[in-house]
Amino acid sequence: MNFSSFLLMRQEIILLTIILLLVTAEISISKTKKHSIVHLAIFLFGIHTLVGFFPTDTGSLFGGMFHTNALIHFFKNVLNVGVLILLLQSADWIQEKIVAQHRGTEFFILLFSSLFGMYFMISAGDFLMFYLGLELSTLPVAALAAFEVTKRISSEAGIKLILSAALASGVALFGISMLYATSGSIYFDDVIKMIASTNLTLLGTVLFFTGLAFKISLVPFHFWTADVYEGAPISVASYLSVISKGAAVFILMILLFTVFKTLMPVWENIIYIVALATMFTGNLFALRQQNMKRFLAFSSIAQAGFILLGLMAGNQLGTATIIYFVMIYIFSNLAAFGVVQAISLQTGKENMTDYEGLYRTNPNLSLVMMLGLFSLAGIPPVAGFFGKFFLFTAAASKGYYLLVFLAVVNVTISLYYYLLVVRAMFLRTSDQAIPYFKNKLYMRLGLMVTVIGILVLGLYSPLYDYIFELSKHLN
Amino acid sequence: MERIIFYIIAFIIIVFAMASVSSRKMLRSVIYLLFVLCGIAGIYFLIDYNFLAAIQLTVYAGGIIVLIIFSVLLVHHIEMELEMAKPLRKILTALLCMLGLGVFLYTIYNNHFNVVDNQVTTTTADIGSKLLSYDAGGFILPFEVVSVLLLAAMVGAIVIAKGKKLTDNNDTEL
Domain coordinates of chain B in residue numbers? Predict the structure, then answer.
C-alpha cells in the first residue's frame, strides 16, 4: 500500500480534518465570537462538497476493509449535497437558539461524525467496518435528537432513538455472527463465495436485514419514527429522514445485490411483504396526522416502501432507479422540511391548521412547499413523478404487476394527504394566518437549492443516463 | 474435565441471566449481570482466549458494571420495585420467547459447521501487531474509526449532560 492510494479515501480524510478543526475552533474561539463557527462550518463543508466532485478510481485499502468505486463516490457526493442543504436550512436555528446555549460547535461535530460513519458504512468491505459505520452513524444522532435539553419531548426522542437503535444493532450483530459462523469470514468477498442457502444463513440474513430495516424505518420496525421526528429538532428529524435513510438504503442495496445475491429468491419474498406493509401503514397513518413533523414522518415511511420496489428488480435498472429516486427524495423532503423549519423558527407553529392561508401571506414559502409535496406525491412536471415511474418500471420489468398496482393505489392515497396541506395553504383562509416574514440568507439559499434540484432532476435526463452508467459498477 | 467445567459455567450464566431479567430491584439485577459477565469470561478462559477473557473482566465486569451501578445509584427511587406485568401478557411473552428460542436452537443444531482444528494460542503480542497492521487481516482502520466513535460519544454525552442550569449560568456570566 503506497501513500498515493490514500487518495481513495480522501473524502473521509477531509471530513475528519473538518471535525478536528471544529474541535480546535471550539477551544480557541472566544465565547463572544462563537456565532462565527456556523459560518466556518458551512464554509468548510461547502469546500468539502466541491472537492468531492473530482472523480476517483476504483480500489480497496486496508486489505479489503475499505473499498470505493465511482458509484460509491457519487453517492457520497449526494449525501454531501444533502447535508450542505440541511446545514444552510438550519444555520439560522443554530445561530439563534443553539449558539446562545454554547452548544453550536457540538452540533456540527456530532452531525459530521455521523456522516463520517455513513461514509465508512457505504464503503465497507467487511462486516466489521459496516457495523462500526452503522454505530457511528446512529450514536451521534441520538445525542442530536436530545439537543434541545430544555424540552422534555426532545430528551424523550433521544432516549427512544438510542434504545431502539441499540436493540436493532444488537439483532443485526447476532445476524452477522451467524453469517460468520457459516462462512468463516467477515469479508464480503469471501462471504459471497461461501454463502449458500442453509437455514442458519437465512436466519442470519433476516436478522441482519432487521438491523437495516430499522434505520430505513420499514414496517414493522417503524415505531420509533414518528415519536423521534416529533420530539427531535427539525434539522435532526430532517437528517434522520433524508441522509440517514438514504445511506441505509444504499448499503442495503449494495449488500442485497452483491453479498446476498444468491439468496435472492428468499429475500425477494421478504421485501415484497415488507414493501406492501410499509406503503400501506405509512400512507394510512399519514392521513390523520395534524402535526407537520409527524405527517412528514409517516410520509417518509411510505416513501421508503416505494424505494423497496426498486430492490425487487435486482439488476442495473434497479440500482439506477433507486439512486435516482433517493436523490429526488432528498431534495423534495428537504424542501418540505426546510419550509417547516423556517415557519417553526419564526412563529413556533408546527400544525397543519397553522398553514391555512399561507399563500396569501408568504407566497414564496408556499410555492416551495407545494413543489416539494408535489414531488413527493409524484405529480408529472416535477422530478418525483419520474422517480416513482422508473421504480415502478423496474419492478414491473420482473413481472411484479400486482405489487406495482398496489403501489399505484398507494400513490393515490398519498396524493390525498399531500394535497390536504396544499389545500390548507392555497384554498383556505384564516384570521390567524402566519404573517409575512423574510427569511435570512442561508435559509433562502437552502430552499433555493432544493427547488433547483427538484426541477433539474426532473427535466435534465442525461443525469439519469449518467447514474445508469455508474450503476454497472455494482452489477 | 473440560466438559464438566463448561456445563458448570453455562449453568451459572443461565441461572444468573434469568435472575437478572426477572429481579424486580434494579441494583440486584445489575449484580446478577456481573455474575453473567464473569461466567462468560470463564468460557473464554476455557477455550484459551486469554486476552479476550482479561478484556471481558476488566471492561465489562470492571468498567461497565461499575458505570451501571453509578447510574442506578444516581436515580432517586432506588428502592422502587418494577411493576409486575399482567398474567396474560406474561404468558404471551413467555410463549413468544420460547418460540424464538426454539427456532434458533433448531436452526443452529441442524446446521453443519465446518470444524477447524485450531491449536494456536493467540498471544497479546499477535493481537497488538494485528491491531496496527494495515495489510489483509489487519485492524488499523476499525481501530481508528472506533476512536472517532468514542470522540463523538464523549461530545454527545457532554452536550446532554450540559443541562439547562449550566447554560443559563454561562449566560449570566457574559
Answer: 1-85, 123-163
Residue (of A452, A459, A474, A475) closest to A73 by Cα position: A474
Angstrom distances, CA of residue A266 to CA of A184, A326, B92:
22, 25, 29
**Cβ within 8 Å, pair A63-B138:** yes
pLDDT band at A475 (very low <50, low <70, confident <90, very high): low
**pLDDT, average across residues A427-452:** 88
Give which of A97, A112, A113, A194 to mutate to test B binding, by max B Cβ within 10 Å: A113
Instruction: Report the C-alpha dihedral over residues A104, A105, A106, A111, rounded to 10 degrees.
Output: 100
Indicate whether this complex's ipTM tops 0.85. Answer: yes
Label the pairing between strands A66-68 and A59-61.
antiparallel
What does DSSP assign to residue A356?
Answer: T
**Domain B1-85 architecture:** Up-down Bundle (1.20)
Of the candidates B111, B116, B138, which has its C-beta nearest A200's C-beta? B111
Average pLDDT over every residue of A169-194: 90
B155 touches chain A (CB under 8 A): yes
Mutate to test the interface with A, among B130, B151, B169 (most CBs of A within 10 A): B151
Chain A partners within 8 Å of B151 (Cβ):
19, 23, 109, 113
Alpha carbon distance B69, B158 (integer Å): 20
Spatial separation of the C-alpha atoms in residues A283 and A298, rounded to whole Å: 7
Given CB atoms, is B163 within the 8 Å cutoff of chain A? yes
In three state form, how does the secondary structure of A194-239 look? HCCCCHHHHHHHHHHHHHHHHHHCCCCCCHHHHHHHHHCCHHHHHH
Calculate mean pLDDT across residues B75-81: 70
Kindly state whether B102 is in contact with chain A, defined as any CB-CB distance less than 8 angstroms. no
CA gap A379, B9 in Å, rounded: 63
**What is the crossing angle of helices A104-122 and A10-28, to 10°?**
170
- Mean pLDDT for chain A? 90
CA distance readout (Å), A286 to A27, A148, A228, A406, B100 = 44, 26, 15, 17, 32
Q: What is this structure's pTM?
A: 0.92
Res A44 pLDDT > 70: yes
Q: A29-38, A108-117, A393-402, B33-42 — which is least confidently predicted?
A: A29-38
CB-CB contact of A68 with A121 (8 Å): no
Which phi and psi angles does A400 have, rounded to 5°?
A: -90, 65
Nearest to A390 by CA among A446, A322, A297: A322
What share of chain A in percent tops pLDDT 70?
A: 99
